[in-house]
Amino acid sequence: MEIGKVPHDILQKIVFQKLKNFDEKVKVSPGIGEDCAILDIGEQFFVLSSDPITGTAKEIGRLAVYVSCNDIASCGVRPLGLLVTILLPPNSSENELDKIMTELAETATALNVSIIGGHTEVTDAVTRIVINTTAIGISDKNNVICSAGATAGDKIILTKTVAPEGTAIIAFEKEEELKKEFGDSFVKKAQSMMEKISVIEEGTTAGELGVSVVHAMHDITEGGLYGALWEIAEASNTGVVVYEENIPISEETKKICEFYNLNPYRLIASGNMIMTTSDPDLVLEKLKKKNIPAAIIGEIVVNPLKRLIYKNEKQDVETMSVLRAPKSDELYKLTR
Question: Which parts of the sequence belong to the PurM-like C-terminal domain (predicted)?
Fold first, then answer.
């Protein structure tokens, strides 16, 4: 198998088929496009999600907090706590651990999320530092939104410019090379996208509107925008039509992807949230009030076989391509 997420067909065949629910309190369990487990604890839902950081060795403390908290936010829920596991290879220094803990603590504090437990270990099972975080949140039942709720006729909203995480990671990993090509200020601006990776505000804004307005939501990680759109359609058993010219993209992302011959729409993209909604004007208005840029990039359609990318809303067949299941993220092309 290629580096990255295990392919969806293998997940379905080998992983998901072996899993069973033994308690009616389990309301959402593992599935394509669903990043959170949801448990019924009476009058509220308990929401949990777990994620590792494996695609980079830079800024991993910050990323570890963001990615799991973003999963909770993609259910419309504000995260309240984190469990953190840190695996250090032999000969790791105290300074390395100190840097990671500083990043973890500062990022969690900025998000008002408590680090409530975890595990720290030196082991020869890893060759570089690996962090896994599990985030938790609690919510009223009518505010929880899943990936599987997309409905035909829904408009698809994307927050922020595409792929802020992938842009920032590459800008840190390839800093010197990019400075030679584009200059210091360009690289610093690209690196600053690391500060835009949280989607808690957009997620909780959707949660306030409720599932009657925002039918489905998914934060974008490995596989990029197109991968996340496919996952929402697969989870919801619908089709999807997306218009590439409607997708906001920053100059930094565009130039970095052109320089390394990467597809920005299939690049890891924490910091972006996808929402499907029957009332896009209301959602855009609420996001605007919180200074969260967003755009309508397509719509959900009935036919699950119709998953298409057009250049623009003219739907010219000559510019059409099929939206396929995500493969290895574009980021890994730089590490092979």
Answer: 152-308
Residue among 88, 253, 245 nearest 161 (CA)? 253
Which run of H or of E encompasses 227?
helix 224-236
pTM of the model: 0.90
* Domain-located, residue 1: no
Same domain membership, residue 153 and residue 136 = no
How crowded is residue 315: how many other Cβ atoms within 10 Å of its Cβ? 12
Q: How many CB atoms lie within 10 A of CB 89?
A: 15
Taking only the tens place, the pLDDT of each residue in 229-285 is 999 999 999 999 999 999 999 999 999 999 999 999 999 999 999 999 999 999 999
Q: Residues of the chain with pLDDT > 90: what percent?
A: 76
Polymer length of the chain: 336
Contact residues for 326 (Cβ-Cβ < 8 A; gap 6+): 5, 8, 222, 223, 224, 226, 227, 230, 231, 266
Note whether 107 and 152 are same-domain residues.
no
Return all residues near 231 (Cβ < 8 A) that are at least 6 apart.
8, 32, 33, 147, 218, 223, 326
CA contacts within 13 A on the Cβ side of 259? 17
For residue 72, give both structure tokens: 């909770």
What is the enclosing helix (H) or strand (E) of 87?
strand 79-88
Distance between CA atoms of 17 and 118, rounded to whole angstroms?
A: 29
Q: Does residue 107 lie in a domain region? A: yes
Nearest to 118 by CA among 52, 198, 25: 52
232 is a domain residue: yes
